[in-house]
TrEMBL record:
<keyword id="KW-0430">Lectin</keyword>
<feature type="signal peptide">
    <location>
        <begin position="1"/>
        <end position="21"/>
    </location>
</feature>
<keyword id="KW-0732">Signal</keyword>
<dbReference type="InterPro" id="IPR000772">
    <property type="entry name" value="Ricin_B_lectin"/>
</dbReference>
<dbReference type="GO" id="GO:0030246">
    <property type="term" value="F:carbohydrate binding"/>
</dbReference>
<protein>
    <submittedName>
        <fullName>Ricin-type beta-trefoil lectin domain-containing protein</fullName>
    </submittedName>
</protein>
<dbReference type="InterPro" id="IPR035992">
    <property type="entry name" value="Ricin_B-like_lectins"/>
</dbReference>
<feature type="domain" description="Ricin B lectin">
    <location>
        <begin position="26"/>
        <end position="101"/>
    </location>
</feature>
<dbReference type="Pfam" id="PF14200">
    <property type="entry name" value="RicinB_lectin_2"/>
</dbReference>
């Protein structure tokens, strides 16, 4: 049974702001709409900086992610079960920056807002933004081939995610 990622955000955070969703506690696979593959720490690696990609959904602990609420906001960290590390933008938050796992420290490159998309799926938006033509634009978790990156949000299927219970 599929639960929308947006449903991941309420039970943890309580009432959500209109721009964010609610989060259910516990670990869940996060499936990409375009590929029907899940967010996966490559090779179940345990080291800081290990690449996160999409891979066939198998329910292994390196594919199970838990939203961890941050104090006083609708932002969450996404923590992987097998290491307890968090989904992190590697290096500068520019379009195409890779996503890795790293020690959870609550830094801005680890903070995400689960935002409902109009079609029942959700976008995973970074706290960090990109600048295009002098304007700031939100950055979303994006599937690029088997890689997972951040890219300016555009509501394409490769930026839509669902939770598998």
């Amino acid at each position: 049974m599929m639960l929308v990622v947006a449903a991941l955000v309420a039970a943890t955070l309580g009432a959500a702001s209109p721009a964010s969703a609610t989060v259910l506690p516990g670990f869940h696979q996060l499936m990409n709409r375009q590929s029907a593959e899940c967010l996966d720490v490559t090779g179940a690696a345990r080291y800081n900086g290990a690449e996160v990609r999409v891979w066939r959904c198998v329910g292994a602990s390196n594919q199970l992610w838990q939203p961890v609420a941050t104090s006083g906001s609708s932002l969450v960290q996404l923590q992987v079960q097998h290491t307890g590390k968090c989904l992190t933008i590697q290096g500068e938050a520019v379009r195409g920056a890779n996503i890795v796992q790293d020690v959870c420290v609550g830094s801005s490159d680890q903070l995400w807002n689960i935002t409902p998309a109009p079609d029942g799926w959700s976008e995973v938006r970074s706290l960090l933004q990109d600048v295009i033509g002098g304007s700031t634009v939100p950055m979303c978790l994006d599937k690029a081939g088997s890689d997972v990156t951040v890219w300016p949000c555009h509501s394409g299927w490769w930026q839509h995610w669902n939770s598998l219970g």
